[in-house]
Specification:
The complex is a heterodimer. By secondary structure, chain A is mostly helical. Chain A has 14 helices and 2 strands; from the N terminus they run H-H-E-E-H-H-H-H-H-H-H-H-H-H-H-H. A two-stranded antiparallel ribbon of chain A has the order 1-2. The longest helix of chain A is centred in the first third of the chain and has 41 residues, at 18-58. Chain A starts with 8 loop residues before the first helix and ends in a 13-residue tail after the last helix. By secondary structure, chain B is α/β, with parallel strands linked by helices. Chain B has 2 domains: 45-154 and 317-383, 3-Layer(aba) Sandwich (D-Maltodextrin-Binding Protein, domain 2); 157-315 and 393-430, D-Maltodextrin-Binding Protein, domain 2, CATH 3.40.190. Chain B contains 17 helices and 11 strands. The chains are: A mainly alpha, B alpha/beta. At the A-B interface, helix 2, strand 1 and strand 2 of A face helix 1, helix 3 and helix 16 of B.
Chain lengths: 322, 433
């Protein structure tokens, strides 16, 4: 986005290149719209339409019965808010709030640990040492493995007779209900995604000019003060964006608890698992309702994050400090 | 520029709304069954089946393909988990896809798939149903119409360590108390230090429903009665669930058995960590392998399940073959399933992979009985086996059973509370008429 400064009126009249310059700028605007519209159309179809369709689906209340003569299932649909009221009441309400709690605790605990680990990894990767590129590549390997595969991997590790119990010398039943299942999912998730934060923070670190550190050293700052007072504030834009992305990802988490622990285990059930469960029983209205509720939750969190911490998601650059 | 942007946005929104309005509901109400329809079309077809744990299916298909070069059958292997297979079958049906022609379905899905009209009614007179075990034929019927022809059946067996039982001079137990006392004697042996007594399938999945209903049936109760009404709040059902709960509490069932599905239990049994193991017959061939994968090869036997006061009742498993409603080349498909499930193939199958055949006379054949000593125990188990509830909303039924049985076993609920909740939830599901 170019910043335009309004020239004082008399200056516009005297400067002759002003007229063609304005015309070219207007032409650039038209060209931009023309070039962007295929992308906008694709986005509308791939992102906008499913959201609108899910909203419409969540308002569909299906009544069904088994025809007593033929035995076939017959459905009739109407529109109403029943799917939403059913989410928040009764047995399904308990399950919903439990899933809400699990989702939130995974997000808070997971992202906190990932951030600390990620920043540590980035600081290590930033230092110039022998084999640095090898270390950088290998740190990214967990991120590259598809989540479902890594969940299977961790399921083997957390098997009763598996490596985790061997190393710890215990016989913890990791995949059964209880705190240990929550912990298992947390460990697997952190292992996989701390490198992502590390990578984004590394990019932020490399922008910091070296003379800032030199000045700090001349002033006699200790390593911790340098980190806390200089590195962290300067890397904050990249860090905040990375944390925002991770928060949005963990809020949607489905495949890790699904494959690692299993379905309907209340210690790890997340909101997306609820939507999937309803869908697997062909109750698409309630499934869409869960999905819309999750969508609203994520939107609220993202909005709050951008407002409160000034996450620089549109690339305003470091010039604009809020 | 603003107008262009505005127009583009309006166009996109109109497109989105228009497309969303296009999503019409399926017309409710079918046009009546009226008997099996015509099966037309010949050509290549596919067989969608769960992972072939025996490794013998492709060889059989090769035999058909050799004789029918224009009507080849391609095997599409689905994941091992039954829930995943069901999900893929449903996805195939919802998208009305031609990808799967013949479905290798678990017995519990017949009602759901028939009621949703995802599979075609089959002509019952063209299959040798009278030669099959009656309870198994029932598993392929819905509203007295045949929708899926039985391919193989399954009943639970008690695998026991014959070498250890011989050392203490015991016969395979007929009641739960006998089993416990044999375990006590065996555990006193020096070579059996630290061995587990009994295990089944207790993780929160379909196997738990099977083990729970076996416990209830073996104690003299029923999960649902003959009219389909849930009866899990009876004294007998309570004794059945109490057997499992007490087993975990007293250590008769090792704690890690709560994570066991079929394969984990088989590994534990083959490593010599269990005296008794409730398992499907397929374990026979695999546990007898002499390639080093099994430490108990030749050292075990099978017997029918024990019960509370006498022999127990197993739950009926098995697989049936159905034809997807949305497939092409149904004439080929019908001929294929007739061939695939015929007595000759059933005999060959049994010899290759120890899956239980559906034809009653195969259990009388003395040559087979000699080669496969487990057939006698299996036949006894099958003769008293009971099917799981045959309801359309099976997903919710099994979820209700699994939730409450798992909660009782892990001490999250008392046995009484678990059964009361289960009864309430099952009544809600079965009353959806």
């Amino acid at each position: 986005m170019t910043t335009t400064t309004a020239a004082p009126p008399d200056q516009k009249k005297t400067l002759s290149p002003a007229a063609p310059r304005r015309g070219r700028r207007a032409g650039v605007g038209r060209l931009a719209v023309f070039l962007l519209s295929p992308t906008l159309l694709a986005l509308a179809l791939v992102v906008g339409y499913p959201v609108l369709a899910a909203l419409r689906l969540s308002l569909e209340v299906t009544a069904e019965r088994i025809n007593p003569v033929t035995g076939f299932r017959e459905t009739s649909t109407s529109f109403g808010l029943d799917n939403y009221t059913r989410i928040f009441s009764g047995d399904t309400g308990d399950r919903f709030f439990n899933a809400f709690w699990n989702t939130t605790t995974f997000t808070v605990a997971g992202v906190a640990i990932e951030t600390v680990l990620g920043v540590a990894m980035a600081l290590i990767m930033h230092k110039a040492f022998r084999g640095r590129s090898l270390v950088r590549a290998s740190i990214l390997v967990p991120w590259a493995i598809p989540t479902a595969i890594s969940a299977l991997l961790w399921r083997w590790i957390f098997n009763v007779d598996g490596v985790a119990n061997d190393i710890l010398g215990t016989k913890v039943l990791w995949t059964t209900e209880g705190f240990q299942a929550w912990l298992a999912v947390l460990i697997a998730d952190t292992w996989k995604t701390a490198p992502f934060i590390g990578l984004l923070v590394l990019a932020g670190l490399q922008i910091i000019p070296a003379d800032v550190y030199e000045a700090a050293r001349v002033d006699g700052a200790s390593a911790w003060r340098t980190f806390w007072r200089i590195t962290l504030p300067l890397v904050k834009p990249a860090l905040v964006v990375a944390v925002l992305f991770r928060i949005l990802d963990v809020l949607r988490m489905f495949d890790l608890p699904f494959v690692l622990i299993g379905v309907r285990k209340e210690s790890v059930e997340t909101l997306s698992m609820l939507a999937q469960y309803e869908m697997s029983n062909l109750r698409f209205g309630p499934a869409a309702a869960y999905a819309i509720v999750l969508f609203v939750y994520i939107a609220v969190v993202a909005f709050a994050f951008v407002r409160l911490l000034g996450a620089d998601v549109v690339g305003r650059g470091m010039g604009r400090q809020r | 520029m603003r107008r262009r942007q505005g127009l583009a946005l309006i166009a996109a929104a109109a497109l989105a709304v228009g497309l969303s309005a296009c999503g019409s509901d399926e017309p409710s109400g079918p046009s009546g069954p009226g008997g099996p329809g015509g099966f037309e079309g010949r050509g290549p077809i596919t067989l969608a089946s769960g992972k072939d744990t025996t490794g013998t299916m492709q060889a059989q298909l090769d035999r058909w393909n050799a004789e029918h070069p224009d009507e080849k059958v391609t095997l599409i292997e689905l994941p091992e988990s039954a829930d995943e297979q069901r999900r893929l079958f449903i996805q195939n049906a919802q998208s009305k896809s031609e990808a799967y022609t013949v479905l290798n379905m678990d017995v519990i899905w017949t009602a759901e798939f028939a009621a949703n009209q995802w599979i075609d009614e089959l002509p019952a007179d063209q299959f040798p149903l009278d030669q099959m075990i009656p309870a198994v034929v029932e598993s392929g019927k819905y509203f007295n119409r045949l929708y899926a022809v039985p391919y193989n059946t399954n009943a639970g067996l008690l695998f026991y360590r014959k070498d250890l039982l011989d050392k203490v001079g015991a016969q395979p137990p007929k009641t739960w108390d006998e089993m416990k006392s044999i375990c006590d004697k065996v555990k006193a042996l020096p070579e059996a230090a630290g061995i587990g007594c009994y295990a089944g399938q207790f993780d929160k999945y379909e196997g738990l429903t099977v083990n729970f209903s076996e416990a209830v049936d073996s104690a003299g109760g029923q999960v649902v009665d003959s009219e389909g009404k849930p009866t899990v709040n009876t004294e007998e059902a309570k004794k059945g669930l109490q057997f499992l709960v007490d087993g975990f509490a007293s250590g008769m069932i090792p704690q890690e058995a709560i994570t066991y599905k079929e394969e984990e239990g088989r590994r534990a049994f083959q490593d010599g960590k269990l005296i008794f193991h409730r398992q499907w017959p397929y374990q026979w061939v695999l546990a007898n392998q002499t390639d080093g994968s099994s430490k108990v090869a030749g050292k075990f036997g099978v017997a029918p399940l024990p019960g509370l006061n006498g022999p127990g009742r197993s739950t009926l498993g098995g697989a049936n073959l159905a034809i997807s409603k949305f497939a092409k080349n149904k004439a080929t498909a019908l001929d294929f399933i007739k061939w695939f499930s015929n007595p000759e193939n059933a005999r060959q199958n049994m010899q290759a992979n120890s899956l239980a055949p559906v034809y009653s006379d195969l259990y009388e054949d003395s040559a087979l009985l000699e080669k496969f000593p487990y057939l006698t125990a299996l036949k006894e188990s099958l003769s008293t086996a009971r099917a799981r509830p045959r309801v359309v909303y099976y997903g919710d039924t099994t979820a209700a059973i699994q939730e409450n049985a798992y909660a009782a076993i892990t001490k999250a609920k008392t046995v009484d509370q678990a059964l009361a909740d289960m009864q309430k939830q099952l009544e809600e599901v079965t009353s959806r008429k």
